[in-house]
Each structure stands twice: as structure tokens, then as C-alpha cells.
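#lab-general

N.A. 3:47 PM
ok so I finally got the sequence cleaned up, no stray characters, all 78 residues accounted for. can someone with queue access submit it? mine expired

B.Y. 3:52 PM
send it over

N.A. 3:53 PM
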Amino acid sequence: MGRKCQLTGKKANNAYAISHSHRRSHKLQQANLQSKRVWWSQGNRWVKLRLSTKAIKTLEKKGLQAMAKEAGINLNNY
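B.Y. 4:20 PM
back already:
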């Protein structure tokens, strides 16, 4: 699996690294991904996901089941 958030779909962004003389070179801005074990109460078990830090903050507010439903993910596979 590539460097992509499993719940939000965040991935790398193409950008320019601009020097002091304003010469541009291409660079990738990677998403801040963390491996996280999250308790899934409906399945009564831990689920290990690769999430962006923004998704972790949203997860605390919405809950795992709601975010997985929005993303169209079946948590039984993780």
C-alpha cells in the first residue's frame, strides 16, 4: 500500500522547492502518516490503521465507525 491515509485518502502533494535565487525544483510534500491502533467497539477488537494526524484528530471527535462508513471501508479486513 502506498503512502496514503486509509480513512481520509490524503496523499503526497507535488510542489516546488524554491531557492533564494528563485530557482525551482520539484519536491513531494508527504502526508504526516502514523501507524495507530484504534479500538473498534462494534467489532470488540483493536484495528491497526495508517492515518494522517488530521484524521487522528477527527477520529477522536467522530468515532471510528462513522469515519469508516464515510470512507467506504470494511473494518473487518484490518
